[in-house]
Every structure is written in C-alpha cells, then in structure tokens.
Amino acid sequence: MERVVLITGGSRGIGKSIADKFKSKGYQVLIPSRNEMNLADNSTIESYCSSIKCEIDVIVNCAGINTIATLNELKDLDLGSMMQIDLFAPLKIIQCLNGKMGNTRTGYVVNISSIWSFVSKEGRIGYTAAKSAINGVTRTLALEYATNNILVNSVAPGYVNTELTKQNNSETEISNISSLIPLKRLAEPEEIANLVYFLSSEDNTYITGQTIIIDGGYICK
C-alpha cells in the first residue's frame, strides 16, 4: 500500500528537500498550496484536512516564519503571526488528521523546530517562544498519541545552506557563521531531510517525544 506524507512548507528550502526525499522513497507527497490551506486561517486548515480521504502515514510541519525584532520593537500582529504559523497551525493540522493516522500501522509526526529554541540572540524573542513551545507540545503529543501508535518528534536545525540563508547573509557573514560551527560549515538541506525521513520511517520504532538537534555542534560551544 502506498504511503502518504503531508508536508507544509514543502515548496522550497528544507521543506523541498524533505519532499524530494519522501518522493525518492515512493511516498505520495501532499504539499498544499496557500490557496488550498492557508496556515494563517484555521478554517482553511480544517477544510483541507477534511478533504483528504486517504490514510496519512506522516505529517511534517515545516512551514514557519521568523520576524526579527526585539521585545520593544515587536508588534502584536507580528508576534501573533509567528505563533499562528509556527505553533497553532501545526497543532490544528495534527488535531485534524490524527484520526487518519496510526492504529493498524505506525503513524509519524515531525515538527521542524530550531536551535533558537535552545539558545537565543537579540531579536529572536517571538521565534524562540514559538519554537520552544513546539518542543513542549511535541512531548505532550507523544504521550497523548502513543496508544494510537503515532510517534511524535521534533527536529531542530541550526544554520542551513538555503537560498533564504544566502539572501539574509553576505558571503562574509556566512563564512563568519561557519567559523563558529565545530564542523566549519552550514548543514545541507538534504542532511535535515535525511534525519526527518529516518524519524518518519519504519526504521524508527521507539523514538518519540524527542527534539533532536542537528547543528554541526553549534550549541555545544
């Protein structure tokens, strides 16, 4: 039976690499567009999820936003948007789809978190709050869905070699960032995808409720 994965944020960056990985393994990959499922609107999430008639084997919540602002600069609207996209939307998707997962065959949920849920820096208050919350609810959901045979984990990447990283940092800045990483380079998106796939595959039979950091040792320093 063909296995099915739903991936948010699967059209670019880390999400695209995750989608490509599952496609290479023969999965049917569902990547809803914003018109199909607007993560800023829970009613469209409910509508899209109710339109899915097949069983879902894997959910990967990868879509996210990061508005950089200190607390004094942070606007209520920006904070609300980060909490909605990075936290509330993933919870709504899981809530809507858990009935189509697990039981007779193992279901998997992987939430994409961030190293900024373990360490932080100026201007990351909203993002750190949302991603720290994702780590916490991952642990709770692992307990709630264990009886349904659903394993729930988070993956917390560090700096990743994506187009967005290149847009936000000059070559000199990327070189400086790399010098702070023990492995002296940024992660490749495919390396994040490999970890996500492992946690969502039949090779994972016992890992649940965990947030796994993949950052080349950055936060160890």
Please give the count of helices: 7
Per CATH, which architecture? 3-Layer(aba) Sandwich
Helix-strand makeup class: alpha/beta
Q: What count of structural domains?
A: 1
What best-fitting shape do the alpha-carbon axes yield? globular
Low-confidence stretches: none
Specify the biggest β-sheet: 6 strands, parallel
Query: Would you count the extended β strands for me?
Result: 6
Which key features would you list for this structure?
alpha/beta; single chain; six-stranded parallel β-sheet; Rossmann fold; 7 helices; 221 residues
Write the layout of secondary structure elements.
Blueprint: E1 4-8, H1 13-24, E2 28-30, H2 42-51, E3 58-61, H3 76-97, E4 107-112, H4 125-145, E5 150-157, H5 163-168, H6 171-179, H7 189-199, E6 211-214
Parallel strand pairs: 1-2, 1-3, 3-4, 4-5, 5-6
Helix pairs in contact: 1-7, 2-3, 3-4
